[in-house]
UniProtKB/TrEMBL annotation:
Keyword terms, alphabetized: Lipoprotein, Membrane, Palmitate, Signal
Signal keyword on record: yes
Protein's name according to its UniProt entry: Methionine-binding protein
Entry annotated with the keyword Transmembrane helix: no
One GO CC annotation: membrane
Length: 81
């Protein structure tokens, strides 16, 4: 699809797929305090499941945070809390 427009609002993942760098090619970009963040939502009662705790631990790990920072160069921010 070829799209012609003067300006466009898109998620970073679409920009990355289009070989754009959202932190360099964007006219404006949300800050880290944006209320529109991705979250892991868990049903009440499932928060203590082993696999859920493991997922949260992995997402908080230094290895994953370093990977996200290197791979996405600021366009995607790692989980911090």
């Amino acid at each position: 699809m070829v799209l012609e427009c003067a300006a466009l609002f898109i998620n970073s993942n679409y920009a990355i797929d289009a070989k754009l760098n959202p932190t360099k090619d964007a006219i404006a970009i949300e800050g880290s305090d944006s209320p529109y963040t991705n979250i892991i939502a868990i049903r009440k009662g499932d928060e203590n499941r082993k696999e859920i705790k493991e997922l949260v631990e992995v997402l908080h790990s230094k290895e994953i945070q370093d990977f996200i920072k290197k791979e996405y160069k600021g366009a995607v921010l790692p989980v911090s809390e």
